[in-house]
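Think of the structure tokens as a kind of shorthand, similar to the way a musician reads notation: each symbol stands for something richer, in this case the local conformation of the backbone. In the example below we present two proteins back to back. Begin with the first one, reading the sequence and then the tokens, and try to describe in your own words what changes along the chain.
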Amino acid sequence: MNKVISSPDPLQRNIKTIVNASLPRRHAAERRFRWYGLIAVSLGLAFVVLMFGNIISKGYPAFWQTYIQVPIQFDPAVIDPQGNRDPQALQSADYAALVRAGMRRMFPAVEGRLELRALYGLVSSDGALELQNRVLQNPELIGAEQEIWLLASANVDTLIKGNIERSLDETERPIKDNQIGWVDQLQAAGQIEKQFNTILFSSGDSREPEQAGIRGALMGSFYTLLITFLLSFPIGVATAV
């Protein structure tokens, strides 16, 4: 028997013609949609880069902190008067007195209560804690003398970074004339330098600006992202399945 091949139905031919005619428009619309998406993503990334660039450019000085080199005599009479290396005694010693003594050795001509108080104000209160940690980790330091880089006060740090106008009257700025003079002497002697600010990442809130950090904010952001991931990931996967 001869097989009869039926001709395409006119309606089917008409539909195919219409579909074929619409394909170029659909392809063009898809290309436009992809370009719109690419432009939107590119703009979003550009704004993110701009935002982070602005943050970094303005916050870059915070990654560096000023330190002062101070000659420290680890006086046994101050640290361990009994000489028995008792950890409790070593921890409660007056390390701030060692810092003050070191500052007086650098500027022996400074006298008077107010002058000395201004001199001691060049160094952060963190200096005493730094000496305490060193002695507790290595009691052999007792009786020795070392040049120790101690954290400078916030006012000195701000001055070194150029954020205090020296030409202003003394009453209009947070740092005194005599302190500026001492800082200039320390700079000339190479006893002031800026170091990477590890405190920024290892410390939290503090009453002393130079001792404050973002550790609390970083940990808070980390735990927020962690909880968000733990909640959203299984729900998202289950929804997709």
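Once you have a description of the first chain, move to the second and do the same.
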Amino acid sequence: MPFRQRLQYSRFEMKYLLSEACARNVRDFVSSYLDLDEHADPNRPHCAYRVASLYLDTTSLDLYGQTMCGAKNRFKLRIRFYDDLPESPAFLEIKARQADVICKDRACVTREGVRCLLQGGVPDDSYLMSHNGSARASAAVLRRFHQLGRSIQAREVAYVSYLREAYVLPDSNRVRVTFDRQLMGSLFDAEVGLEMPRDGTKVKLDKVILELKFNDRFPDWMRALVQTFNIQRRSVPKYCYCIQALGLRSSRRRIAARGIA
């Protein structure tokens, strides 16, 4: 089933690290309120599906640094995709944090549009794909993504990929719970272009990443979940974990040597 686009929305995200045993119990609790999302893969354990994002950053990894120092207002630029099929869309995402609120803008584009962008071109509206949401809003996100990237001289740095088990309210994305496993960082190869990572460096994180996501008010049942399992909210920056696993933390010279500076 094609991945649906959801444009310009704000939400709260609360993250936790769980043991696998705790994650199973939390899943049982969550499944009383939510359903598996539409992309669940019954052929994989936990009905999980692969998620991959190509992150853009400056040569000195300024966006990474802002996350590591806990800047209250910051953003990320990434290109998210779910397979290598040439006809499948990719999503240009601007994910901004303003204090505890996450604002995510998304534009659905063709693989040719991504190729144009990564080669330094300016993708026009002809590269947009028709999904849920306003075509005008998608075009605005496309332009803003390109402008933000140019303003900081962003370059392709690394892939972040993992297996995601996701639950949502039926016919709604207002409440969402995800369990992420097998977090892996992979280097980008400009000669290959956008490609689902098949190998890389696994992050040494013997935990399941739980994310509770909601618009507006923290649902009472989520509050009960946190209290029942006595779990503690914490920062879990996947991009930063992958940068560190790949040894790129202080890597301006390494990034330049790979030809993307």
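Compare your description with these statements about the second chain. The chain is about 25% helix and 30% strand.
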